[in-house]
Amino acid sequence: MSVQTVSSxxxxxxxxxxxxxxxxxxxxxxxxVQEITANVLLAAGASPAMVVAMExxxxxxxxxxxxLINTGTPYPERVAVMKACAQAANxxxxxxxxxxxxxxxxxxxxxxxxxxxxxxPTILRGNASEILALAxxxxxxxxxxxxxxxxxxxxxxxxLAEETGTVVCVTGPVxxxxxxxxxxxxAGGNVMTTLxxxxxxxxxxxxxxxxxxxxxPVNAAISxxxxxxxxxxxxxKHAKGPGSFxxxxxxxxxxxxxxxxxxxxxx
Length: 267
Hints:
This protein is of the alpha/beta class. The protein has a single domain (3-260), classed as 3-Layer(aba) Sandwich (UDP-N-acetylmuramoyl-L-alanine:D-glutamate ligase). The protein contains 10 helices and 9 strands. Residues 141-146 have low confidence and may be disordered. Substrate binds at residues 50, 198.
């Protein structure tokens, strides 16, 4: 299956639409990354909210532009809320993104993620080890960190997309978004992102934000990846270390003009 590089024009249009509409993104994310997730969405031009009580979360999902579900710190009550919100999103035509953090790490976590995946998210966004584990081709990474390269997970991502009917976005040195028939890719970014907690999780929130304004989920996912890689590459030029990279990354998301969103050639 051929892989196409991302269209900078399509990404520019998507970012313009995101900033014009400022979609409300309901984030059911893990406790470690709530602040950076909210700040990344704000900097990019979206509006974050984190409503977690079972009594109101599904109702809030129904009035949101998109839903993010992140399994970084799961427990039974939170998983139940996630399932209810995923169903509410499906019932009300709200796009939603599943970030399967540490899929493959433990049987209970992996089963919970598979049950969420069965509810058919619009986009599944994970690192290579997580995608390989869900595709039955790997055992997961080192905790929440990937031990595999995104390029080695591409065929598994394409197969998983075809089997589930979900667009699969596997990220790493090269990011891929695929529906099993069409695959887009983008390269670039900077290794410094691996030293700042929440950059991957907040990327999934960007996927949700773009899915709220871009009808094609493949384009939505690759637009989010392109924006994140551009911001990471820009931040690395000015940062002295992980602390300053964090701030420079947020600034780059805020300051980038849509027409500037071009990143290196994909491999």
